[in-house]
Amino acid sequence: MKNAYENEMKLEFLSKSCNESFARITVASFVAQLDPTIEEIADIKTAVSEAVTNCIIHGYEDKEGIIKIECKIFANSIKIEISDNGKGIDDIEQAKQALYTSKPEQERSGMGFTIMESFMDELKVESVLGVGTKVTMKKIINKGVTYV
Amino acid sequence: MQVDYNKKDKQLTIKITEEIDHHSCEKIKKRADYEIQIHLPKKLVFDFENVNFMDSSGIGMLIGRYKLVSMFGGKTSLINVKPAIKKVFEMSGVLKLIPIEENKNMGGAKVEECI
Ligand SMILES: Nc1ncnc2c1ncn2[C@@H]1O[C@H](COP(=O)(O)OP(=O)(O)OP(=O)(O)O)[C@@H](O)[C@H]1O
Ligand SMILES: [Mg+2]
Q1: Which member of A44, A129, B90, B108 has the greatest number of CB atoms within 10 A?
Q2: Structure pTM?
């Protein structure tokens, strides 16, 4: 069967900044069953932190909303979807450019999407203005290790 | 967070002792700016020995402090940066402004050797 996954989890939490560490630690512990390296864990934690922080700062602009995370584990990879029902992104290509930020006054560096893109193997951003944003990331774990 | 000011060298050392993200940055920013404004250091050093996580929020926070110290002619640098965090720094290009120095606390060993 194509795309059959071996494990799955879903998480919903309020867009409070104290949940940023909760989110990345929870995803990291779920991924642990794939026996990732320390570096792979660090990459995933950073990418999740970027996406969740974006939902809080940009999606909901510090107002209260729900952030959803869905994780699926495949034989040797993980797929993570992080979404909000916030403001949405007008120009996704521009948003993904390194150093682009719509909030320079808040000391943002515009590196979030660049980090997600390079720390993970795949990044997809879908967004509808006024409806919300969904970021999908995939990472292959233990490249080179063969599974039976 | 541990703060140390060396009057003789006008060096302010800020040792961050938690994960650096959007949540913790607010607090770190406030305390760092307060210390910078009372001491007006010639040299600001962020010690990363106890930092095990940092995302892009940390980049923005450090550039903000760098700008503040630069207004008084001071320099900013980093010590004891772990590999996972160095990777985030390298991606951002910020090391050109805020370089990683050798680790003075451990007999001049390179940062990479101190993890
Ligand atoms: N969930 C979201 N909802 C609405 N807009 C978003 C969302 N995520 C990102 N954006 C937009 O994309 C831009 C780029 O995001 P990115 O994470 O790369 O940089 P940043 O968040 O501005 O800065 P940094 O991540 O370095 O702190 C943001 O400035 C914002 O305009
Ligand atoms: Mg961001």
Answers
A1: A44
A2: 0.92
